[in-house]
Amino acid sequence: MKQKSSKKLLSTSLLLVLIALVSLTAATTAWMTIADSTRLKTMRLDVTSGANLRFDLDSHETFEEYVKSLRLIDIADRILRDQGYHPRENPLSPVTTTDCIHFTLENGEPAAKESYMEFVLHFMATDDMVVHLTTAGEEGTRIFSDEVSDIAKAMRISFTADDSTAVYDPGMEPGSEEGLGGKIFGLARGNRIVYDASNTLFFLNAGVDKPVTVRIWLEGTDEICTDALRGVPYHIQLRFVGTDENGNLLEDSRTTTRRSAAATPTEERNENK
Asked: Which pLDDT does position 183 carry in this prediction?
């Protein structure tokens, strides 16, 4: 068992929330087609613990210029400006990919850019850190619907930084495997999560901007991607945390002693090997 560092650094996490309404039409065995538009009602990104990890749609010179939250309208307007379509007005269609760059439809033809969602977030932190997704806590990463419990298994979310891609597959068991031009990984639920190389997204050097391309799509080849999803509202919630190179959550000694019992519990690295 590795000894945890006695040095308390910063506790930092980032929350990405998307709420979408999916309207689906006819399907084959695993593929289905979305009719009308996938209406993203709200998207919110928040720093939920500490203030040492921030982001924005543009790069900046100083940490203070980055923000703790973005609205859907901010991201949608940027997509409209850069890609020529608005997510509120265009449908997401089931697609598939081999590299998280080029997407195709069921018939093998190239997918239109509005068939999936793509945008760039710029991250900056006040300390060096390894960034992971986490499922711990009420605001931890999850994709869910009140109507179809398995909807998460049809979703994929990729993060590309420094020419390296990590793909989150909610239907996958904890761990990772090579694929899609990088690695595909799954996460344990709740406080059982272990932060290690399998779920590392990217590295941040203190005070240095990091552009990260985020892509969200419905995987048409997944067996869950069928007519059962027609008209189902769903909610995507992503939370990011920073760790040291050994997977220990970084904590801010200035806030640790002031954290109240009512605060969201800080995730601990599971060291019960």
From this structure: 97
